[in-house]
Amino acid sequence: MVLEAEDRVLVAAARRGDLDAFEVLVRRHQTPIYRLALRMLGSHSDAQDVAQEAFIQAWRSLARFRGDSSFSTWMHRIAVNRGLNHIAARRSDRELSPELTDVRTDPAEIVERSAQLAILTREILALSPDQRAALVLRELQGLSYEEVAQTLGVSLAAVKGRIHRARLALAEAMDK
Fold first, then answer.
1. Stretch 157-164: mean pLDDT, rounded?
2. pTM over 0.90
3. Taking the mean position of all CA atoms in its chain, how far away is CA 53?
4. For residues 116 and 122, what is the distance between their CA atoms, to the nearest angstrom?
């Protein structure tokens, strides 16, 4: 709650042209926005591009930010939209970096988990962009269903339906 209040003060200052205030907002939110983009796109370089584009768009659109939601939610929505645009422009079947895996000491377990992660990653990237965005925001970013709905600009029922269909598709793929 304190960060939201601080964000509001920083947003107000940034609207008045204070670049330092916007820089603080960027530093505060860059890691979660980058992680969101990475989980949506599966590529570090694409995630960096999308995150940077999201903050540039936020700076340019700051005057239109009404404050109906938190700055964080607004940034998530911008990043999701940029990620969806990126997905539409470049269909990709690249896998998530091995840096995201949970490394164990047993080599056999590492190989098995790596293979499972590769399958899961491929299947997440194969989901429809709408399902992928909802699933990533909920399961990987930890947003509530309500926050996901607000971020995506859809109803709560639509979010639940997308996540349900995504989970079914992933479960089916992992059972093969």
1. 94
2. no
3. 13
4. 10
